[in-house]
C-alpha cells in the first residue's frame, strides 16, 4: 500500500471516529441533563471537566442498551465500517442482528465505537485551536500578555518552546486517531462479523437459491430441448417433401411456428423469474412457475390440488393443460404417439399440481429422447394409478422400439434422464430407464400423496439412466428420500449449463 493510500485510509477512519462521537452526543446530552437535575450545582457542558467525563460514563451504558435492542443497527454500522474502514465485505454481516448473540456483539461494537469516537471527537475539537495558538504565540505579544496555563515560563527564550509544543499536540492527535482507527478496524470483523447462526442462515439461503436455479435449469432443458427436437424433425420432414407435397410443408411450417412460439413463452417465463424480484414466479411469490410444492426445511411436498388455469401464464404446464398439445406437437413431426389413461387415475385436473407438473416434464423428456434417438418410431405413453404399500402412486410408462442403427449420441451427453430421476426423487418416487428386448422403456413412480413430514423413508427402487434409444447403460442411481429434518440435496447446475444442454 502506498503512502498516499495509507493517509487516505487513516483519514477515512478518522471520519468513522467522528461519526461515533456524533452518535453518542444525544446520549451524552441526556446524561448531562440528568446529572444537572440529580446533583445541584452541576452545569451541563460547563466546568469542571470531571463532570463531562461523568456524563460520558453514564451515556455509554445507554448506548449499549440501544445496540442491544435495535437490530438494524448492525447493518448500518457494518455499512459504515465497509465504506470508511476498508474492511472487506465478506468479513462483516449484512443484515440486522436477529439472535441475542449477534445483538450482544453489536452492543459491544456500538459502545466501543461511540466511546472511542467521543474521546477522539473531543480531542479533534480542542487540540487544533490550542495548537494554532501555540504555533503563533511568539509572533503576537498580545498573546504573551494573557495568563495562560502553560507548564513553563511565559517570558524569555521559553516563549519559543510553544511552537514545538503545538506541533507535538497535532502529532499526538494524529497518532491517537490513527491508533484508534486501526483498533476499530481490527475489532469490526469480530463484533460485526457473521455469527454461526448467520452463516447457517446464509448457507440455507444459498442452498435454496441453488435449488431454484437447478429447477429453472431443468425447466429450460425440458421445454426448450423438446421444442428444438420437434422443430428439427419438422423442418427435416418439410425439406424432404417441399416440392412434392406443399400441403404437408405448410402444415409442418405451421407446427414449427406454434412449437417455437410455445418455447419462447416458456423461456420468457423462466427468464422473468430470474430477472424480476417480486415477480409472481419468484421463490417468494405464491404462484411461481413450476412450483414444486415443497415446504421449507423438511423438503417434503405440500398438498396442492391443481386448479383450473394452472399451467397458464406464470405456471409451468401440467398434464391437464399441456399433455394434449405436447402429443399434438410430437405427432406433427410424423411420429406416432399413443396415450393410454387408466380410468382409476381420475380426471387429470384433480391430480396434485406438483405431481402433474413433474409427470408432464417427464413425458416431455421421454418424447424428446424418442424423437432424437429413435426418429419415426412409435411411442406409447401410459398413465396408471397403482396401490403401493405407502399409498397410491402414479405410474408413468414410455416405450419405443430401439432403432437398428442407433443415432450417435452427443459427445457431451445429455442431462435429461438425470433430471427425470431428480424430479422423481424430490417427490419421494423413483424412475428407471433402459433397454429390454429391443424396446426402450422409461418408468417413473410418483406418490399421489405428500410424503410424511417426519421420519425417514427409503425407496428401494433403483433407477438406471441411459441415453434414450442407444441401448447402452451409462449410469446407475439409487433413489432415497432424505431425512425430513434436513434440506433436500440440491445440484449446482446453472441455467447457463442448461442452455448449453437444452439441445439434448
| Cα gyration radius (Å) | 36 Å
Number of strands: 7
- Count of helices? 12
Low-confidence stretches: 276-314, 451-504
* Helix and strand element order: HHHHHHHHHEHEEHEEEEH
Basic shape: elongated
Distance between the termini: 51 Å
The quaternary structure here is single chain
Percent range of helical residues: 40-55%
**Which secondary-structure class do the elements indicate?**
alpha+beta
| Mean pLDDT reading | 76
Strand content: 5-15%
Account of the 3D structure:
This protein has helices at about 5-40, 50-70, 70-85, 100-135, 140-145, 160-190, 195-240, 245-275, 320-330, 355-375, 415-425, 495-500; strands at about 335-340, 380-390, 390-400, 430-435, 440-445, 460-465, 475-480. The protein has a 5-stranded mixed β-sheet with strand order 1-2-3-5-4. Strands 6-7 form a two-stranded antiparallel sheet. Helix 4 (about 100-135) packs antiparallel against helix 6. The protein is α+β, with helices and mostly antiparallel strands and about 500 residues long.
Secondary structure layout:
Blueprint: H1 3-38, H2 49-69, H3 72-84, H4 100-136, H5 141-144, H6 162-192, H7 196-240, H8 246-275, H9 319-331, E1 337-341, H10 353-373, E2 379-388, E3 391-401, H11 416-426, E4 430-436, E5 439-447, E6 462-466, E7 473-478, H12 495-501
Parallel strand pairs: 1-2
Antiparallel strand pairs: 2-3, 3-5, 4-5, 6-7
Keywords summarizing the entry:
504 residues; alpha+beta; five-stranded mixed beta sheet; two-stranded antiparallel ribbon; 12 helices; disordered C terminus
